[in-house]
């Protein structure tokens, strides 16, 4: 049974400027975020992610289209929506001269149904830093204060913009566990991140934006299943099997894109055995979120010359 939609976007557009100088950052996107899921919105810089988030959060009005959060317009019904939403911006801009505890008490006063500062400090692992000025914290610790502020209002929907930027690997994993616990409690999350492993670890569904549109969306399995795998090896200096999508770069590195990784790898290894060839630098990789992302963004791993066209 499908969960209720917490966010619905229909034909969402955002244009900056007018006339000949107008720039359309978001070009008619449609998607829904289901209750209790983690929805990752990915894309390169300039893809339209931030403009989309601004509209979902009610910070700006769409140029066209419609967005609903909990069934309400996030701008017209800002008070009702905001009471149930937590936002962790990419840069929190918290007052540097206040202590962590003072900052949270100040932020707590803006929440409709706040928990205690002590509770969120324990969640983000900063209990022992409560009396330290925000300006004296490391960048990673400041990100955890931003997270604590987002959690103070006990939100049912969290917007997380690059939540682990600046964190060390241990703190990143701790944040992942915190988000997993929040999801288990029923909190819905919209996540943007440049760490693709973070999206793989946390997201139930992923949408990849490019040039203002959603180029691909679905579960991780949906995104990679139809994307080709890759076989790569150093050219042995004699004619190799001619696969349909085989290319060689300037360093004589052969790359084969294939939707039949096992079959083509078996054929290649059989040929090498029969020819008495040692395939140096041999790699075989299934499709990944990274390969899908790079393909959509127009940045393939290599730009070699085509060498085969039969299989």
Notes on the structure:
- The structure is a single chain.
- The protein is 31% helix and 26% strand.
- It is α/β, with parallel strands linked by helices and 311 residues long.
- The chain folds into 2 domains: 36-45 and 78-224, P-loop containing nucleotide triphosphate hydrolases (Rossmann fold); 227-306, no CATH class.
- A hairpin with a 6-residue loop joins strand 1 and strand 2.
- The longest helix is centred in the middle third of the chain and has 16 residues, at 169-184.
- The protein is globular and about 75 Å long.
What would you say about this model in short?
The protein is α/β, with parallel strands linked by helices and 311 residues long. Helix content is 31%, strand content 26%. Strands 5-6-7-3-8-9 form a six-stranded mixed β-sheet. The protein has a five-stranded antiparallel β-sheet with strand order 13-10-12-11-14, with helices on one face.
Task: List the main descriptive attributes of the protein structure presented here.
alpha/beta; 6-stranded mixed beta sheet; 31% helix; 311 residues; globular; Rossmann fold; 26% strand; 5-stranded antiparallel beta sheet; single chain
Predict the CATH topology of the largest domain: Rossmann fold
Mean pLDDT: 91
Task: Tally the structural domains.
Answer: 2
Major sheet size, sense and barrel closure: 6 strands, mixed
CATH superfamily of the largest domain: P-loop containing nucleotide triphosphate hydrolases
Which value, in Å, is the CA radius of gyration? 24 Å
Level-2 CATH architecture of the largest domain: 3-Layer(aba) Sandwich
For the termini, the CA-CA separation is 43 Å
State which percent range the strand residues make up. Answer: 25-35%
List the strand order in the largest sheet.
5-6-7-3-8-9
**The CATH top-level class label of the largest domain:** Alpha Beta
How many individual β-strands?
A: 14
């Amino acid at each position: 049974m499908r969960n209720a939609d917490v966010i619905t976007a229909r034909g969402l557009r955002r244009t900056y400027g007018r006339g000949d100088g107008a720039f359309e950052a978001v070009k008619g996107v449609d998607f829904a975020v289901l209750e209790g899921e983690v929805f990752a919105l990915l894309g390169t810089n300039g893809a339209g992610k931030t403009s989309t988030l601004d509209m979902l959060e009610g910070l700006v009005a769409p140029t066209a289209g419609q967005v609903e959060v909990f069934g309400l317009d996030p701008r017209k019904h800002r008070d009702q929506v905001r009471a149930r939403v937590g936002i962790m911006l990419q840069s929190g801009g918290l007052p540097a001269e206040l202590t962590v505890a003072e900052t949270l008490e100040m932020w707590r006063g803006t929440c409709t149904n706040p928990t205690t500062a002590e509770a969120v400090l324990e969640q983000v692992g900063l209990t022992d830093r409560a009396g330290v000025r925000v300006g004296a914290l490391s960048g990673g610790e400041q990100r955890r204060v931003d997270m604590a502020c987002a959690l103070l209002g006990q939100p049912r929907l969290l917007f997380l913009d690059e939540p682990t930027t600046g964190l060390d690997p241990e703190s990143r994993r701790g944040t992942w566990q915190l988000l997993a616990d929040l999801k288990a409690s029923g909190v819905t999350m919209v996540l943007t991140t440049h760490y693709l492993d973070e999206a793989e670890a946390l997201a139930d569904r992923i949408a990849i934006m490019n040039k203002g549109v959603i180029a691909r969306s679905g579960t991780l399995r949906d995104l990679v299943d139809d994307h080709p795998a890759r076989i790569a090896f150093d050219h042995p200096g004699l004619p190799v099997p001619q696969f349909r999508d085989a290319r060689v770069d300037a360093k004589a590195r052969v790359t084969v894109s294939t939707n039949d990784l096992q079959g083509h790898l078996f054929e290649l290894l059989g040929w090498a055995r029969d020819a008495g060839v040692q395939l140096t630098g041999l790699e075989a990789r299934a499709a990944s979120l990274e390969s899908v992302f790079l393909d959509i963004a127009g940045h393939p791993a290599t730009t070699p010359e085509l060498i085969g066209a039969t299989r």
